Amino acid sequence: MAPLICWRCFPRAWLCRGARRGPGRHYRAALCAELKEPLAVGEVAPRPVLPHEVRVDVHFCGVNFADILVCHGQYQEKPHLPFTPGMEFSGTVLEIGTDVSTVKEGDRVIGVSHFNAMAEECITDQKTLWQIPEKLPLREAATLPVTYGTAILALEHRAHTQPGETVLVTAAAGATGLAVIDVATNVLRAKVIAAAGSDKKCKLAMQRGAQLSVNYNQGSLKEAVQQLVGSGGVNVAIDMVGGDLFLEALRSLAWEGRIVVLGFAGGNIASVPANLLLLKNISALGLYWGRYQLQNFPVFSKSLHSALQYYHQGRIQPYVGKVFKLEEVNDAFLHVIQRKSTGKVLLSLK
Predict the structure, then answer these.
(1) Residue 226, helix vs strand vs coil
(2) How does residue 25 score in pLDDT terms, banded at 50, 70 and 90?
(3) How far apart are CA 339 and CA 129, in angstroms?
(4) Residue 23 dihedral angles phi and psi, to the nearest 5°
């Protein structure tokens, strides 16, 4: 995840205008024709699928801050203009290439893509699709790839969270924060302290499984955590805010604690005081979930298989905060930018 940006950085045109209609034909898609400008909704001509590719009828697409960043030119990846944002989706298979063996027409799937999923159709490689259980609704399924994939890798692969350990999660009422709470509490049997910026968000985090909560806009996070767990500290911290809050979370760790950095929603990137790592034998770790797709695909794929398995076993319950129509894509972006969102924000393509 890249450093996040404040809604004040966006042009007023983006914040105030709805999606514009663009020319074209065949199927509708959100189009970024110019960086820092409102997206258009236009019609796109379909292209043929390659032998290893699959065409999917998209039902729901996740709205992630990375989508906003890439449309602002501030993400690690910079697609050529014009492009369609959207990193994750759920839907049904429309067409398969001649070499595809993993799915067939009509299968219900979730998938990840390189910024082309905010459209009624999406073409992707067969290996980036996963079939979903019959009882998993497509709406909830669309929450799994980025948020639960990230939560599972952060807690299991990076932090090696153990049953009974205490996990502190910042931005706890956001999509990834709630997924971390869900996996930590219901799969790993850890104790979770949810840290969020309002009492309302803390209440939601508690309702979704956190045992304790802290409103970090009401005082020191470190002091609040110490009051809850004592001077020993927490075993694991999952941070998505950065800046001073990251440093407070770092100082809240116990002996041999682990902190995993997922992003910088606060807009500031803190420097790690190396003396703290030494004194408590602390580990500071990063997680860029999407990079595993290129560097270690088996680990990447396992995170999605695990998410689907946990749902099938009844151990996780994805939470959808708000659903927008495709024509409301700019409203959806604004909803995320202004931090109004709790849980996963989705676009409905149907």
Answers:
(1) helix
(2) low
(3) 30
(4) -75, 165
